[in-house]
Design a protein that fits this description.
By secondary structure, the protein is mainly beta. It has four helices and 19 strands. The strands form three sheets. It has a twelve-stranded antiparallel barrel. The longest helix has 11 residues, at 2-12.
């Protein structure tokens, strides 16, 4: 029973965020989300977890309607995103633990419209993302409640990631201009945020169990002041819609599913939703953002040994929805014409990693 619990909690360590297909892409959450401090069920005080997430976002949606002509016309925006979360957990006692999580991010973004449609060019970003510190508590003593439990976590997200990354944008075949890269490939959001997590499991038998995770990041800062014009001058429309600078949005993630354990292997399958909402819980909503939600089917496999757990998960997109942003709502009220922007989503993301007992 204890071994089953270990493998279940290891499944919770998949963070992706990511950011799409549960991914960062143009819409979905960054990879600081959804981490559960599973080291409570390991002997020893420390656990080191490494999780790498990859995605390619390229399918454009307005609402739930795919803009298939973008692929046909070769005008789609393509984001490639690699994120490695390095997380260290410290067990205080059977119920309390601490976590520090630092992502290392590498992004590329190719498009035509950002480069005056003179050709397809690429902008890039690489470096550390926003660090997160969190504390966790099991509501019941795990030693007395081996069949099921509920863990609550609270933390702070620090603006350690560069949110002012710049690269060159092509103006003509021979002229380019330095400007801030798109919000979707910035390394950080520029805000100090606060996180709430709920992680739970229940073992029906030594083989079959259910799991669930909920993660919410509240970002009180309204916008970070970074221009969305790629080194140019904001348009009158952008100023009216208050989308000339980048917002610092909230985000959330929910996961739930079943797992089956056979000896050292655990197979799991469930649903995963990631959302970047149009409005924040705290603070204003001005600034540019691409709000949306992604519902995934998430199969996974993990292997548990004495001192290490390895895992792989591939969330596959079932539904993608680009919802109205605050700027869209302002434009609709001003013009009387319903407005909703588009965003690019991935078909799937790949998450692989390991957790080491130290």
């Amino acid at each position: 029973m204890k071994k089953l619990t270990i493998t279940l909690i290891t499944a919770f360590t998949i963070s992706s965020f990511l950011n799409d297909a549960a991914a960062q892409g143009c819409v979905a959450i960054r990879t600081t989300g959804g981490y559960c401090s599973g080291n409570d069920h390991f002997e020893g005080k420390y656990q080191l977890s490494l999780n790498t997430r990859y995605l390619k976002s390229f399918r454009h949606f307005v609402g739930t309607e795919e803009q298939k002509q973008r692929l046909e016309q070769n005008t789609e925006v393509i984001n490639h995103s690699y994120t490695t979360d390095i997380a260290l957990s410290r067990k205080i006692n059977a119920r309390w633990s601490l976590l520090v999580d630092l992502p290392i991010i590498s992004n590329t973004r190719s498009s035509l419209y950002e480069h005056s449609n003179v050709g397809r060019y690429t902008t890039r970003s690489f470096g550390i993302g926003d660090m997160r510190l969190a504390v966790y508590r099991w509501m019941w003593n795990p030693e007395k409640m081996p069949k099921g439990n509920l863990q609550i976590g609270a933390g702070i997200k620090l603006p350690t990631g560069d949110y002012k990354v710049q690269d060159y944008f092509q103006l003509t075949d021979s002229t380019r201009r330095l400007g801030f890269v798109d919000q979707s490939i910035q390394l950080g959001d520029g805000g100090t945020g606060f996180t709430l997590e709920l992680n739970t499991f229940y073992n029906f038998s030594p083989f079959l169990a259910v799991y669930g995770n909920f993660y919410y990041l509240a970002n009180p800062r309204e916008h970070n002041g970074v221009s969305t014009t790629r080194g140019g001058t904001p348009s009158a429309t952008a100023l009216l819609n208050r989308s000339d600078v980048m917002s610092v949005p909230d985000q959330y993630m929910f996961r739930a599913g079943l797992s089956y354990t056979l000896q050292s292997f655990t197979l799991s399958a469930g649903l995963r939703e990631e959302c970047l909402p149009a409005k924040d819980l705290i603070g204003g909503n001005d600034g540019f953002r691409r709000p949306g939600r992604i519902l995934d089917f998430e199969p996974g496999i993990s292997y548990s040994a004495k001192r290490v757990n390895v895992f792989a998960y591939v969330p596959i997109a079932l539904k993608r929805d680009r919802i109205q942003s605050n700027a869209d709502i302002l434009a609709t009220k001003r013009t009387g014409v319903y407005t909703k922007g588009d965003a690019a989503f991935a078909d799937y993301s790949i998450n692989i990693g390991a957790a080491f007992k130290l």
